[in-house]
Amino acid sequence: MIPSIELDQFVDRVMAELEKKLGSPDVSVTTESANSNAVTHSATDSGVVTIKVPQPRWEEGLAELIESTPARIGVWRTGTRPLTKEMLKFRCDHAAAIDSIYGEVNEKLLEQFGLFTVDTCYENTENYLRRPDMGRIITERGMDLIRESCKAKPQVQIVVSDGLSANAIDANLPDVYPSLLDSLTAYGLKVGTPFFVKGGRVAVMDHIGELLQPDVFVLLIGERPGLVSSKSMSAYLCYQPRKGTVESDRTVISNIHPGGTPPVEAGAYIGTLVHKMLEQKTSGIHLDL
Question: What pLDDT is recorded for position 23?
Protein backbone atom coordinates (compact mmCIF):
# COMPACT_ATOMS: atom_id res chain seq x y z
CA MET A 1 0.00 0.00 0.00
CA ILE A 2 1.16 3.55 -0.76
CA PRO A 3 1.74 5.59 2.44
CA SER A 4 -0.99 8.10 3.24
CA ILE A 5 0.68 11.25 1.92
CA GLU A 6 -0.31 13.78 -0.72
CA LEU A 7 1.73 13.34 -3.90
CA ASP A 8 2.63 17.04 -3.99
CA GLN A 9 4.08 16.75 -0.48
CA PHE A 10 6.01 13.66 -1.54
CA VAL A 11 7.48 15.47 -4.55
CA ASP A 12 8.45 18.43 -2.35
CA ARG A 13 10.29 16.09 0.01
CA VAL A 14 12.18 14.47 -2.88
CA MET A 15 13.14 17.88 -4.24
CA ALA A 16 14.40 18.96 -0.82
CA GLU A 17 16.58 15.84 -0.58
CA LEU A 18 17.95 16.43 -4.09
CA GLU A 19 18.92 19.98 -3.21
CA LYS A 20 20.77 18.74 -0.11
CA LYS A 21 22.73 16.09 -2.03
CA LEU A 22 23.62 18.30 -5.00
CA GLY A 23 25.44 20.75 -2.75
CA SER A 24 27.44 22.65 -5.38
CA PRO A 25 24.95 22.94 -8.21
CA ASP A 26 26.09 22.51 -11.78
CA VAL A 27 24.88 24.63 -14.68
CA SER A 28 21.67 22.69 -15.29
CA VAL A 29 20.70 22.81 -11.61
CA THR A 30 21.40 26.52 -11.46
CA THR A 31 19.22 27.05 -14.53
CA GLU A 32 16.40 25.02 -13.04
CA SER A 33 16.57 26.85 -9.74
CA ALA A 34 16.44 30.15 -11.56
CA ASN A 35 13.46 29.03 -13.61
CA SER A 36 11.70 27.65 -10.54
CA ASN A 37 12.04 31.01 -8.83
CA ALA A 38 10.63 32.87 -11.84
CA VAL A 39 7.06 32.31 -10.67
CA THR A 40 4.46 35.04 -11.05
CA HIS A 41 0.90 35.29 -9.81
CA SER A 42 -1.92 36.65 -11.92
CA ALA A 43 -5.28 37.75 -10.55
CA THR A 44 -8.44 36.45 -12.25
CA ASP A 45 -12.14 36.78 -11.53
CA SER A 46 -12.10 33.62 -9.44
CA GLY A 47 -8.79 34.06 -7.63
CA VAL A 48 -5.01 34.04 -8.10
CA VAL A 49 -3.35 31.75 -10.64
CA THR A 50 0.30 30.67 -10.37
CA ILE A 51 2.26 31.11 -13.61
CA LYS A 52 5.54 29.20 -13.87
CA VAL A 53 6.55 30.59 -17.26
CA PRO A 54 8.99 33.48 -16.68
CA GLN A 55 7.93 36.76 -18.29
CA PRO A 56 5.10 35.38 -20.48
CA ARG A 57 4.19 37.56 -23.47
CA TRP A 58 0.50 37.44 -22.59
CA GLU A 59 0.19 36.88 -18.87
CA GLU A 60 -3.59 37.38 -18.68
CA GLY A 61 -4.27 34.91 -21.49
CA LEU A 62 -1.94 32.29 -19.99
CA ALA A 63 -3.60 32.75 -16.59
CA GLU A 64 -7.04 32.17 -18.12
CA LEU A 65 -5.80 29.05 -19.89
CA ILE A 66 -4.25 27.59 -16.74
CA GLU A 67 -7.38 28.37 -14.73
CA SER A 68 -9.66 26.73 -17.31
CA THR A 69 -8.20 23.21 -17.05
CA PRO A 70 -6.42 20.91 -14.57
CA ALA A 71 -4.20 19.75 -17.47
CA ARG A 72 -0.47 20.47 -17.45
CA ILE A 73 -0.36 23.93 -19.02
CA GLY A 74 2.70 26.18 -18.82
CA VAL A 75 4.77 23.90 -16.56
CA TRP A 76 7.94 25.36 -18.08
CA ARG A 77 11.32 23.72 -18.68
CA THR A 78 15.07 23.71 -18.18
CA GLY A 79 16.61 23.87 -21.63
CA THR A 80 14.83 21.18 -23.64
CA ARG A 81 13.69 19.05 -20.69
CA PRO A 82 10.90 19.46 -18.14
CA LEU A 83 11.71 20.77 -14.69
CA THR A 84 12.71 17.99 -12.30
CA LYS A 85 9.79 18.75 -9.99
CA GLU A 86 7.29 18.62 -12.85
CA MET A 87 8.71 15.34 -14.13
CA LEU A 88 8.48 13.84 -10.64
CA LYS A 89 4.86 14.96 -10.33
CA PHE A 90 4.11 13.44 -13.74
CA ARG A 91 5.61 10.10 -12.73
CA CYS A 92 3.74 10.15 -9.40
CA ASP A 93 0.42 10.74 -11.19
CA HIS A 94 1.22 8.00 -13.70
CA ALA A 95 2.05 5.57 -10.87
CA ALA A 96 -1.21 6.47 -9.10
CA ALA A 97 -3.15 5.70 -12.27
CA ILE A 98 -1.50 2.28 -12.58
CA ASP A 99 -2.12 1.52 -8.90
CA SER A 100 -5.80 2.36 -9.37
CA ILE A 101 -6.19 -0.16 -12.18
CA TYR A 102 -4.32 -2.95 -10.42
CA GLY A 103 -5.50 -2.13 -6.91
CA GLU A 104 -8.38 -3.59 -4.92
CA VAL A 105 -11.24 -1.91 -3.10
CA ASN A 106 -10.89 -1.79 0.68
CA GLU A 107 -12.81 -4.74 2.13
CA LYS A 108 -13.63 -2.80 5.29
CA LEU A 109 -15.41 -0.18 3.18
CA LEU A 110 -17.58 -2.84 1.56
CA GLU A 111 -18.34 -4.32 4.98
CA GLN A 112 -19.22 -0.86 6.29
CA PHE A 113 -22.05 -0.57 3.76
CA GLY A 114 -23.03 -4.24 3.91
CA LEU A 115 -22.03 -5.04 0.33
CA PHE A 116 -21.39 -8.69 -0.48
CA THR A 117 -19.12 -9.45 -3.46
CA VAL A 118 -19.64 -11.30 -6.72
CA ASP A 119 -17.18 -11.69 -9.60
CA THR A 120 -17.49 -11.31 -13.33
CA CYS A 121 -15.73 -13.70 -15.71
CA TYR A 122 -12.77 -11.31 -16.01
CA GLU A 123 -10.33 -13.82 -14.36
CA ASN A 124 -7.51 -11.32 -13.77
CA THR A 125 -6.61 -7.69 -14.45
CA GLU A 126 -4.61 -8.39 -17.61
CA ASN A 127 -7.51 -10.30 -19.10
CA TYR A 128 -9.95 -7.63 -17.90
CA LEU A 129 -8.06 -5.01 -19.93
CA ARG A 130 -7.91 -7.17 -23.06
CA ARG A 131 -11.43 -8.66 -22.89
CA PRO A 132 -14.01 -6.05 -21.86
CA ASP A 133 -16.78 -8.51 -22.76
CA MET A 134 -15.80 -10.80 -19.88
CA GLY A 135 -16.39 -7.99 -17.39
CA ARG A 136 -20.04 -7.83 -18.51
CA ILE A 137 -20.94 -11.36 -17.40
CA ILE A 138 -21.40 -12.56 -13.81
CA THR A 139 -19.97 -15.99 -12.96
CA GLU A 140 -22.33 -18.90 -12.29
CA ARG A 141 -21.44 -18.78 -8.61
CA GLY A 142 -22.09 -15.04 -8.57
CA MET A 143 -25.49 -15.47 -10.22
CA ASP A 144 -26.49 -18.03 -7.61
CA LEU A 145 -25.43 -15.68 -4.81
CA ILE A 146 -27.40 -12.79 -6.33
CA ARG A 147 -30.55 -14.93 -6.63
CA GLU A 148 -30.16 -16.12 -3.02
CA SER A 149 -29.30 -12.77 -1.44
CA CYS A 150 -31.15 -10.10 -3.40
CA LYS A 151 -34.73 -8.93 -3.49
CA ALA A 152 -36.27 -9.61 -6.91
CA LYS A 153 -37.89 -6.83 -8.97
CA PRO A 154 -36.77 -3.94 -6.74
CA GLN A 155 -37.77 -0.38 -7.49
CA VAL A 156 -34.11 0.71 -7.40
CA GLN A 157 -31.10 -1.60 -7.60
CA ILE A 158 -27.71 -0.19 -6.56
CA VAL A 159 -24.48 -1.95 -7.55
CA VAL A 160 -20.90 -0.82 -6.91
CA SER A 161 -17.96 -1.96 -9.06
CA ASP A 162 -14.24 -1.26 -9.10
CA GLY A 163 -14.21 -0.98 -12.89
CA LEU A 164 -10.94 0.64 -13.97
CA SER A 165 -10.21 2.38 -10.66
CA ALA A 166 -10.47 0.75 -7.25
CA ASN A 167 -9.08 4.00 -5.87
CA ALA A 168 -12.18 5.86 -7.07
CA ILE A 169 -14.45 3.63 -4.97
CA ASP A 170 -12.31 4.01 -1.85
CA ALA A 171 -12.19 7.79 -2.26
CA ASN A 172 -15.81 8.56 -3.17
CA LEU A 173 -18.15 5.82 -1.96
CA PRO A 174 -18.15 7.01 1.70
CA ASP A 175 -19.77 10.28 0.55
CA VAL A 176 -21.71 9.25 -2.56
CA TYR A 177 -23.49 6.22 -1.15
CA PRO A 178 -25.08 7.75 2.00
CA SER A 179 -26.05 10.85 0.01
CA LEU A 180 -27.71 8.66 -2.63
CA LEU A 181 -29.64 6.66 -0.04
CA ASP A 182 -30.82 9.87 1.65
CA SER A 183 -31.98 11.25 -1.69
CA LEU A 184 -33.91 8.09 -2.59
CA THR A 185 -35.51 8.03 0.86
CA ALA A 186 -36.56 11.66 0.47
CA TYR A 187 -38.40 10.71 -2.73
CA GLY A 188 -40.03 7.73 -1.01
CA LEU A 189 -38.25 5.20 -3.24
CA LYS A 190 -37.43 1.63 -2.19
CA VAL A 191 -33.95 0.18 -2.67
CA GLY A 192 -33.21 -3.48 -3.35
CA THR A 193 -30.20 -5.39 -2.01
CA PRO A 194 -26.98 -3.55 -2.92
CA PHE A 195 -23.78 -5.47 -3.61
CA PHE A 196 -20.28 -5.17 -5.10
CA VAL A 197 -19.13 -6.53 -8.47
CA LYS A 198 -15.42 -7.22 -8.84
CA GLY A 199 -14.06 -6.77 -12.37
CA GLY A 200 -17.22 -5.17 -13.70
CA ARG A 201 -17.85 -3.26 -16.93
CA VAL A 202 -20.76 -0.87 -17.50
CA ALA A 203 -22.87 -3.40 -19.39
CA VAL A 204 -22.79 -5.81 -16.45
CA MET A 205 -25.92 -3.93 -15.40
CA ASP A 206 -27.75 -5.63 -18.31
CA HIS A 207 -26.87 -9.11 -17.07
CA ILE A 208 -27.87 -8.26 -13.51
CA GLY A 209 -31.00 -6.58 -14.88
CA GLU A 210 -32.04 -9.89 -16.42
CA LEU A 211 -31.57 -11.63 -13.06
CA LEU A 212 -33.28 -9.11 -10.76
CA GLN A 213 -35.47 -7.09 -13.17
CA PRO A 214 -35.28 -3.75 -11.33
CA ASP A 215 -37.22 -0.69 -12.45
CA VAL A 216 -34.11 1.50 -12.30
CA PHE A 217 -30.50 0.37 -12.04
CA VAL A 218 -27.72 2.52 -10.52
CA LEU A 219 -24.13 1.43 -11.13
CA LEU A 220 -21.35 3.27 -9.27
CA ILE A 221 -18.10 2.37 -11.04
CA GLY A 222 -14.47 3.51 -11.14
CA GLU A 223 -13.52 5.46 -14.26
CA ARG A 224 -10.43 4.96 -16.38
CA PRO A 225 -7.77 6.91 -14.41
CA GLY A 226 -5.87 9.78 -16.00
CA LEU A 227 -2.91 11.94 -15.08
CA VAL A 228 -5.16 14.55 -13.42
CA SER A 229 -7.10 12.24 -11.12
CA SER A 230 -6.95 8.52 -10.37
CA LYS A 231 -9.99 8.85 -8.10
CA SER A 232 -12.76 9.60 -10.59
CA MET A 233 -16.04 7.67 -10.33
CA SER A 234 -19.00 7.48 -12.69
CA ALA A 235 -22.65 6.70 -12.04
CA TYR A 236 -24.52 4.89 -14.81
CA LEU A 237 -28.32 4.80 -14.57
CA CYS A 238 -30.76 2.89 -16.72
CA TYR A 239 -34.50 2.26 -16.74
CA GLN A 240 -35.16 -1.50 -16.84
CA PRO A 241 -31.79 -2.61 -18.26
CA ARG A 242 -31.98 -5.95 -19.99
CA LYS A 243 -30.06 -7.93 -22.58
CA GLY A 244 -29.82 -5.83 -25.75
CA THR A 245 -29.85 -2.45 -23.99
CA VAL A 246 -27.96 0.12 -26.09
CA GLU A 247 -25.63 2.77 -24.70
CA SER A 248 -27.96 5.62 -25.62
CA ASP A 249 -30.45 4.18 -23.11
CA ARG A 250 -28.05 4.87 -20.22
CA THR A 251 -27.68 8.13 -18.32
CA VAL A 252 -24.25 8.88 -16.89
CA ILE A 253 -22.78 11.28 -14.36
CA SER A 254 -18.99 11.28 -14.76
CA ASN A 255 -15.98 12.83 -13.04
CA ILE A 256 -17.30 12.31 -9.52
CA HIS A 257 -14.41 13.30 -7.26
CA PRO A 258 -13.44 16.29 -5.08
CA GLY A 259 -11.91 18.11 -8.05
CA GLY A 260 -14.90 17.44 -10.33
CA THR A 261 -18.52 16.77 -9.39
CA PRO A 262 -18.53 16.76 -5.55
CA PRO A 263 -19.42 13.25 -4.27
CA VAL A 264 -22.17 14.39 -1.87
CA GLU A 265 -23.76 16.54 -4.58
CA ALA A 266 -23.52 13.66 -7.06
CA GLY A 267 -25.31 11.27 -4.70
CA ALA A 268 -28.20 13.69 -4.22
CA TYR A 269 -28.49 14.33 -7.97
CA ILE A 270 -28.49 10.61 -8.78
CA GLY A 271 -31.54 10.25 -6.55
CA THR A 272 -33.29 13.03 -8.46
CA LEU A 273 -32.53 11.33 -11.79
CA VAL A 274 -33.87 8.01 -10.51
CA HIS A 275 -37.10 9.76 -9.49
CA LYS A 276 -37.45 11.28 -12.97
CA MET A 277 -36.78 7.92 -14.66
CA LEU A 278 -39.54 6.26 -12.67
CA GLU A 279 -41.92 9.09 -13.49
CA GLN A 280 -41.13 9.10 -17.21
CA LYS A 281 -40.41 5.35 -17.49
CA THR A 282 -37.30 5.93 -19.57
CA SER A 283 -33.62 6.89 -19.38
CA GLY A 284 -30.73 7.97 -21.59
CA ILE A 285 -31.42 10.28 -24.52
CA HIS A 286 -35.18 9.89 -24.05
CA LEU A 287 -35.16 11.26 -20.50
CA ASP A 288 -36.49 14.80 -20.21
CA LEU A 289 -34.26 16.63 -17.74
Answer: 61
> Where are the alpha helices (H) located in the chain, listed in sequence order?
7-22, 27-37, 59-68, 84-102, 107-112, 125-130, 140-149, 166-186, 204-212, 263-280
Pairing type for strands 156-161 and 116-119 reads: unpaired
Cα–Cα distance for residue pair 51/101, rounded to 1 Å: 32
Question: DSSP character for 189?
Answer: P
CA-wise closest residue to 160 among 128, 109, 115: 115
Which range, 50-64, 76-90, 190-204, 224-238, has the best average confidence (pLDDT)?
190-204
- Give the number of residues written for the chain: 289
Task: Show the domains of the chain with their CATH numbers.
Answer: 7-101 (no CATH), 104-286 (3.40.50.11240)
Q: Could you tell me the sign of the dihedral formed by the alpha carbons of 58, 62, 63, 68, in that order?
A: positive
**Contact yes or no for 137/207 (Cβ under 8 A):** yes
Are the beta carbons of 232 and 163 closer than 8 angstroms? no
Report the C-alpha gap between 19 and 77 in whole angstroms. 18
What is d(CA 216, CA 209) in angstroms, rounded to the nearest whole number? 9
Q: How far is CA 172 from its chain centroid?
A: 8
Higher pLDDT, 114 or 259: 114
Give the pLDDT score at 39. Answer: 62
Angle, helix 263-280 to helix 166-186, in steps of 10 degrees: 50
Please check the confidence at residue 49 and state whether its pLDDT lies above 90. no
Residue 94 CB coordination number (10 Å): 14
Per-residue confidence band for 214, with pLDDT thresholds at 50, 70 and 90: very high
